[in-house]
Amino acid sequence: MSRVGTSMIDLARQIVRPARRRIFPGSAAYWERRYRRGGTSGPGSAGTHREFKARFLNDFVDRHGVESVVELGCGDGSQLELGRYPHYVGYDVSETAVDACSARFASDPTKEFRTYDPAEFPAGPFAELSLSLDVILHLIEDDVFDVHLDHLFGASQRFVIIYGADVDMDPKKTAAHCRFRRFTPVIESRYPAWHLDGVTEGLAPATREGPRTDFFVYRLG
After folding, report:
1. CB-CB contact of 111 with 105 (8 Å)
2. How far apart are CA 216 and CA 196, in angstroms?
3. Cα distance between residue 118 and residue 158, in whole Å
4. Residue 5: is its pLDDT beyond 70?
5. 57, 79, 180, 201: which could form a disulfide with 45 (CB 3.0–4.6 Å)?
6. What is the CATH number of the domain that holds 91?
């Protein structure tokens, strides 16, 4: 493609993305609409990315003797299919996704699913490990991001694992349903009882627009 052609495409993206962002319905509404229309949790929950995350998480659960797991943002359940957790509770803002997961794992008594309503989220801690996998980048609104972290760290009595990109990016350079932001300084300031126990490098970006995502393991105490 010529340099002129490439420039025209870049210009078109700069015009279209702000327009799309202006009509973005909000994080919860976006995901409910996406799943209702037959969409998936995306490339980060498929193929080699799914397998890589499952290996890390299953090994972590085994090594630390974790008996209970809660996940904020279970999505369509594709990632969970490879998970080995003694007891698991998955939350999602999309009722469609929750219904699909309930049907998908109907024969598995170790798993249950609930629609995530911030106002009715149970007081914790009630699990040994809480998970946020490829979720933070989809929390466009500041208040939604804040509540997500509060519930994520409030739910666990031992460990929190985040799979995300700890970087700030210009929203104009990403899709309307993505917002990359640094979360480690926020966690360090807001939850002093929790300590970053380690960072494990993830795979190359699942999409062209995103940076590499890594595992961030937090331990209480």
Report:
1. yes
2. 7
3. 22
4. no
5. 79
6. 3.40.50.150
